[in-house]
């Protein structure tokens, strides 16, 4: 089974364990949580409140949002922005923003619009919008 190893109130590691290994790992870590069927799958760094593993905020740094797009997708976006003022306005908005929140309708609409134009695929749209932020992607107020 896929397990999150909890240390100091957060997921410290994710490992595959056999049932007979869970108790031994429980002696080393604060908790061992079976995450096999959890959706979204918890990641290292996610918080643990003593009962539940908590998905972090869907707020990304602006750079982290940019890095969710491949280089070829970014080239296509900037090329389209030369004649598509909706794309240009969205780029300007993102540059002016403090962070990018993947849960906002405006963010989802922009990425959906890119998919509707064929700039990204619908599968990439889903990946960009629904992948929970890695700890290095999370926007932290007052940092940076």
Features:
alpha+beta, 42% helix, 7 strands, two-stranded antiparallel sheet, 17% strand
Which helices and strands, and how do they pair?
Elements: E1 2-7, E2 10-16, H1 19-28, E3 31-34, E4 47-48, E5 53-54, E6 59-60, H2 62-67, H3 71-81, H4 85-96, E7 100-101, H5 105-116, H6 122-130
Shape: elongated
Ends apart, CA distance between termini? 38 Å
**Global Rg:** 19 Å
In total, the number of domains comes to 2
The spatial strand order of the largest sheet comes to: 2-1-3
Helix content: 40-55%
Extract low-pLDDT stretches.
Answer: none
Q: What's the helix-strand series? A: EEHEEEEHHHEHH
| Nearest-integer average pLDDT | 92
Class by alpha and beta content: alpha+beta
Describe this structure in words.
With 144 residues, this protein is of the alpha+beta class. The protein has two domains: 2-54, no CATH class; 59-130, no CATH class. Helix content is 42%, strand content 17%. It has helices spanning 19-28, 62-67, 71-81, 85-96, 105-116, 122-130; strands at 2-7, 10-16, 31-34, 47-48, 53-54, 59-60, 100-101. It has a three-stranded antiparallel beta sheet with strand order 2-1-3, covered by helices on one side. A two-stranded antiparallel ribbon has the order 4-5. Strands 6-7 form a two-stranded antiparallel ribbon. Strand 1 (2-7) and strand 2 form a beta hairpin. Helix 3 (71-81) crosses helix 4 (85-96) and helix 5 (105-116) packs antiparallel against helix 6 (122-130). The chain is elongated, with a radius of gyration of 19 Å. It starts with a strand and ends in a 14-residue tail after the last helix. The model has no long low-confidence stretch (mean pLDDT 92).
């Amino acid at each position: 089974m896929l397990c999150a190893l909890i240390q100091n109130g957060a997921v410290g590691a994710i490992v595959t364990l056999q049932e007979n290994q869970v108790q031994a790992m429980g002696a080393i870590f604060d908790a061992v949580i079976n995450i096999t069927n959890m959706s979204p799958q918890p990641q290292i760094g996610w918080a643990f409140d003593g009962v539940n593993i908590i998905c972090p905020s869907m707020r990304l740094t602006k750079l982290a949002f940019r890095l969710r797009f491949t280089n070829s997708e970014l080239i296509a976006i900037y090329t389209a922005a030369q004649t598509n003022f909706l794309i240009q306005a969205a780029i300007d908005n993102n540059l002016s923003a403090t962070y990018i929140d993947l849960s906002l309708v405006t963010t989802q609409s922009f990425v959906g619009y890119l998919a509707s134009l064929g700039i990204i695929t619908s599968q990439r749209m889903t990946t960009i919008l629904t992948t929970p932020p890695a700890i290095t992607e999370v926007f932290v107020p007052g940092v940076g």
